[in-house]
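[audit] Reproducing an earlier prediction to check determinism. Same input, same settings, fresh worker. If the tokens differ from the archived copy the diff job will pick it up downstream; this log only records the rerun itself.
[audit] input (312 residues):
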Amino acid sequence: MFKKLSNKNLLIIIALLGAIVLIINYLDSTKSNRTFREELVSIDSSAVTQILLYPKATQHEEVKLEKISDLWQVTLANGNKASVPIDRIQGLIMELQRIKPMRLAATKRSSWADFKTDSSGSRVKVMEGETTTLDIIVGRFDFNQQARSATSFVRLYDDSSVYAVDGFLELSFNQGHDSFRDKELIRTTASTIMQINFVYPDSAFSIVKNNDKWLLDDLELDSTAVATYLNTLANTSGNQFVDDADPSFTSSATYSLRVETMDAGTITIDAYIDSVSSIVNSSQNPESYFDGSVNNLVKSLFVGSAKFITSR
């Protein structure tokens, strides 16, 4: 009797333990499902009015991108505003919309520092009117040399979980104010340029396209040299902005180019030069002034006529 009772009790205990294990597994599964988010980003690209960045590049000082009417602007460190090309904004929004969790990397706060999703990460906030529709921390990324792919780590600001996602997100969002500004000096294509007038303090000359030939007065120019220059000109951008230029210094150009095109009309590029500095500005991007010494900007644009003449 005692033996039968013991076996019966043993079976009951085993059954109870089995039920407990099933319940624990179910609860763990439910908890895991609650922890893992299948979607992190849900924003309406047409409704976005502000993108606020707090990147490492600025020691986490705010970089404010704001839509005013139909144009985007960035607020500079000195409080002034500068235009932002729409493709830069579209690129940021597309990067955010592509964020899809691949796996859960961590769930505890103690792991944030390992993935740079703590205060060392780059915070990104997206506003649609007065509503914050995204608040996320972009952390470090790992690069897989063999697969030539990258995995980034992100965390929603009000969540403890860190997710692994595809892409080089830090490269897009760890950027300062100037990286979002319009750096193009000229927007045209080499094939549409018909004439360039070079105006210098002590001289001036023009090169003119006549059918398939380029001429300086009646002199036929070296076609390869002209083509090389035109391709450089048509793809010229500034590198370093000058935001504190003295208006009296930029009131009268030292060197000027007048570029006649079929698609964009006349484009003017001016250089302001003295013994200590040089600044370049164009009619296609009039609000931006660039340091003419960086990447030899002045020297590459303002050349002499000898550059185009074939030596014999």
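[audit] rerun output stored. Observation attached for the diff report: The mean pLDDT is 90.
[audit] end
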